[in-house]
Amino acid sequence: MFRLAVLGCAAFGALILGVFLGGSALAPGDVAWALLHPHAGGDVATIVWALRVPRVAIAGIVGAALAVAGFLLQGMLRNPLVDPFLTGVSAGAGAAIAVAVTLGLASGLVPAVGFGAGLGTALLVAALARRGSGIDTERLILAGVSLSALFSSFVALALTRLAQGGAQEILAWLAGTLAGRGWPEVAATAPYLIAGFALALIAVPSLNVLRLGSGPARGVGLDLARTQWVLLIAATLLTAAAVSLSGIVGFVGLIVPHLGRRMFGTDARLALPGSAFFGIALVSIADAACRTLFAPQEIPLGVLLAFVGVPSFLYLYLRPRGTSRLWGT
Amino acid sequence: MGNLTLRGVRIASAECTLLEPFDLDVASGSFVAIVGPNGVGKSTLLRAVAGFEPTAGGSVALDGHDLRALSANERARAIAALGADPEAPHGMTVREVALCGRFAQRPWWQWTRSDHDLLATETALARVGLRDSADRLIDTLSSGERQRAWIALALAQGARVLLLDEPTSHLDARYASEVLALLREIASGGTTVVAVLHDLNEASSFADRIAIFGDRRLLAYDAPTTALAASTLEAAYGIAFARADIDGETRVFARLKNT
Predict the structure, then answer these.
(1) Which residues partner with B165 through β-bridges?
(2) Tell me: domain B4-85+159-254, CATH 3.40.50.720, correct?
(3) Bridge partners of residue B164, in order along the sequence
């Protein structure tokens, strides 16, 4: 519990740090003053409250949503290599956005199109994976991988056919970015995020029992079909919401649950909130780096996370010495 | 309490009937061994009694209540079932595994564990002799200890019936006899125990009654001395058996060479 509280404070600290850093260099004192006086007005307050605070909030939301979604799916499938995009959310959203851009749809509609298509693809994957009242995990993985491949080819096709401008818009989205996002996007996804997080919390005791494996878990009274649907729906809502906010931000959903389990063990009552805090901290720091490293140019968030995240993950888990293991502690 | 009543139960795989309809009564607090050749449908029968899969026909009742009417939660409080050779979960201590047995005692979304849950878990761990190993990771235990940890989980469930599929399959003679003695003791404590066993002599030494399945039927269901007739075993397994009674216990031996 103590470590969880410390990590929670660290995540909050990372968010605050994100407000102080940005493309336009503001004096820390001015930022602090603007933060403490929200209604004061002025250039600094406008940058802080209209640009940085919502953006940092979105970074935190995306980090927490992807981390929790990854944690849920890894627990459901008992597979440490699963990431939240497994169910086709990102590929479906990508294809829909590619089509939308090709057809010249207003770019304000892009997040909504991405959200709807992501959700729809996950539903299709779940329908293909159904067996009896529950879900066949092997079929889920196969259906997710196949449909993702299919939809990714739509994106590739659109990219080769489109003029420079349209291709640019799709690429920016594929690489993951928080540029230009604000409160309207948060408000639009809020109901799904709340539902997703609520379902995740409700599923925690079931996730803990599922650690035994599906056979013994049923033996102690777990309704496997219900658990699978709760986990899948929660993960899909969170992932689709995150994707519509930020585009495809990879590796967070794969790596952060490992960090959570490594620090807190496999008990989801600690590891799930722990993973959420790790996700918040990681994405908000990464986004702050995206904004500041080559200001006024921005690096895509997904690219930076892959550059920094993957080597550190490899170092943590694949270094030769030690008895590290992907699953568990 | 813990009387199992099977009436006209038929067991089938996707392709064909495994066991023709049969009746079976398991009295409260008894230890019943289920034996028979591989593929005869013993495990399928056990899963049906555990409520994991529907039977192909007939009914299973516990103390007069049809099991089909129970929710997963209610069933787990009445019947604890251990599958054959469950994989040891990574990163879980013995205590955490045993605590999972309390899952059905509260609503499925509830995070907190009551003092009673913790107490029941500690009692279960003590009964299987793992109190000192409670904080060890289950995948570091020996096969015999691991099997006892799973039994602790089943005991923590507080069920009236305990079903086990081949609880001694990977154990050496000493560990096997420890586990069976533990099951015997659990049955004497009032919990009905039904176990699929492969070793006929283990069944003979520890079970109150033996149900022998073979040739798609229930061939015998009786006390070991009566059930383990050479002719019944030959009908079940299709090979010859010799029998000896040593110190009042029935021993049977398959004639392994061609006879």
Answers:
(1) B196
(2) no
(3) B82, B195
What ipTM did this prediction achieve? Answer: 0.88
The domain limits of chain A are: 2-318
**Taking CB atoms and an 8 Å limit, are A212 and B89 in contact across chains?**
yes
Give the mutation candidate from B85, B109, B166 for the A interface (greatest A CB count, under 10 A): B109
Angle at B167 between CA B75 and CA B46, to 5 degrees: 40
B206 at the A interface (CB within 8 A)?
Answer: no
Do A208 and B109 lie within an 8 Å CB cutoff? Answer: no
A220 contact B CB<8A: yes
What superfamily would CATH give domain A2-318?
ABC transporter involved in vitamin B12 uptake, BtuC (1.10.3470.10)
- How do the domains of chain B map onto residue ranges? 4-85+159-254
| Chain A CB contacts of B100 below 8 Å | 208-209, 211-212, 216-217, 220
Question: Can you give the pTM of this predicted structure?
Answer: 0.91
Cα A287 to chain centroid, rounded: 13
How many pairs of residues across A and B have Cβ atoms under 8 Å apart? 82
- Residue-wise pLDDT for A199-256, tens only, equals 999 999 999 999 999 889 999 999 999 999 999 999 999 999 999 999 889 889 999 9
Tokens of A49: 């409250």
Per DSSP, what are the bridge partners of residue B79?
Answer: B161
- Report the candidate in A254, A236, A289, A259 with the shortest Cα–Cα distance to residue A115: A236
